[in-house]
Recover the amino acids of this structure.
């Protein structure tokens, strides 16, 4: 089942190389991907898809297309285009760092280290966090962290490994610790965002930008937490991170609906109109597979997590993948970008496509994505 799904995904991705040209897919409207000239936070996922496709197939068409995206990311950093946010890890881990991992390209390594320095500019020492959105001192977002940022921390951990400069590791660990304390709730659910006083660092309140309400559990946020804490464990071997990742994963898989692919928020009322988020299921599956990398064969959580991944991925392949739909631009249907905001609430989303293929390749070939070497 996994091999067929992979081959279908690679065939569609290859067609999309010509279809997208030098542009980058973001989310779809009427089943057509909206494209941008490398100005969005999601553009690394297209690069990552190309590198995954090349790593699996050895097809130079994927390699050449992926290399072109890295050249675009080099220009984006040189021009400082749309980099005033925390998603630098999403952009450069899956583009230039992927090239370094697969090809050993020294220029790609240096570009990735430069990107890590851009992310470090988001560090706010008074609160000991990486500011998610907006400029320093921003009235609305100046004191705000979001759970997604856990997936950007690997860029900093990696920079520490490559340079030996402890500042990268110290910032990543401080942010992970703060996220664990304030974004993860006592019942193992999670806040999407948390606010701190910008001057004192005092914790203020949890909230959301994407979820059903401030106290709900946005499924994609929970998935970011699963994978993000697992990656922090990989780099630091702090057992608290692995424990937290497992707790978040159990909460997620305990709440799978009948077809095993989650709705957009665990607290949203379920009816015929409730939106799904196939991307959340893909991310959580990839994250749980990362957790499994670190568990002993007799670990009591292993069987549960393996079953959760099998259910989620089988649900995606069976009911949400575009297998057999030759003209489909996306790999997964029924992803949601922002249900609350009405932005692509039931569409293709490029990060869903990326994590779907990453999870498939983990299952079939043991590939681990480009979060670490």
């Amino acid at each position: 089942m996994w091999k067929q799904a992979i081959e279908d995904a690679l065939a569609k991705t290859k067609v999309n190389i010509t279809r997208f040209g030098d542009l980058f897919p973001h989310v779809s409207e009427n089943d057509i991907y909206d494209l941008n000239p490398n100005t969005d936070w999601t553009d690394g996922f297209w690069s990552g898809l190309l590198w995954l496709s090349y790593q699996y197939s050895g097809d130079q068409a994927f390699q050449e297309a992926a290399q072109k995206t890295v050249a675009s990311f080099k220009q984006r950093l040189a021009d400082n285009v749309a980099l005033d946010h925390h998603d630098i890890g999403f952009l450069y881990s899956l583009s230039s760092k992927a090239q370094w991992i697969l090809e050993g390209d020294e220029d790609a390594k240096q570009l990735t280290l430069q990107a890590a320095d851009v992310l470090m500019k988001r560090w706010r020492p008074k609160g000991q966090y990486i500011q998610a959105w907006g400029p320093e001192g921003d009235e609305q977002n100046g004191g705000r962290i979001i759970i997604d940022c856990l997936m950007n921390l690997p860029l900093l951990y990696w920079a520490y490994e490559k340079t030996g400069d402890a500042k990268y590791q110290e910032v990543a660990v401080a942010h992970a610790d703060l996220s664990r304390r304030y974004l993860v709730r006592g019942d193992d659910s999670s806040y999407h965002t948390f606010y701190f006083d910008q001057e004192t660092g005092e914790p203020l309140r949890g909230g959301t930008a994407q979820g059903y309400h401030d106290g709900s559990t946005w499924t994609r946020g929970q998935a970011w937490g699963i994978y993000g804490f697992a990656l922090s464990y990989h780099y630091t071997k702090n057992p608290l991170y692995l424990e937290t990742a497992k707790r978040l994963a159990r909460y997620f898989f305990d709440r799978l609906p009948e077809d095993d692919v989650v709705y957009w928020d665990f607290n949203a009322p379920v009816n015929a109109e409730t939106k799904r988020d196939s991307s959340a299921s893909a991310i959580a599956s990839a994250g749980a597979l990362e957790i499994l990398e670190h568990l002993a064969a007799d670990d009591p959580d292993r069987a549960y997590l393996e079953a959760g991944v099998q259910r989620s991925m089988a649900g995606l392949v069976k009911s949400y993948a575009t297998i057999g739909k030759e003209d489909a631009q996306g790999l997964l249907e029924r992803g949601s970008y922002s249900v609350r905001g009405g932005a692509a609430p039931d569409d293709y989303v490029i990060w869903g496509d990326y994590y779907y293929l990453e999870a498939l390749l983990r299952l079939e070939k043991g590939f681990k994505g480009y979060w670490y070497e």
Q: What stands out?
A: The longest strand covers residues 24-29. The mean pLDDT is 98. Strands lie at 24-29, 32-36, 123-124, 129-130, 144-146, 193-196, 203-207. The chain has 13 helices and seven strands.
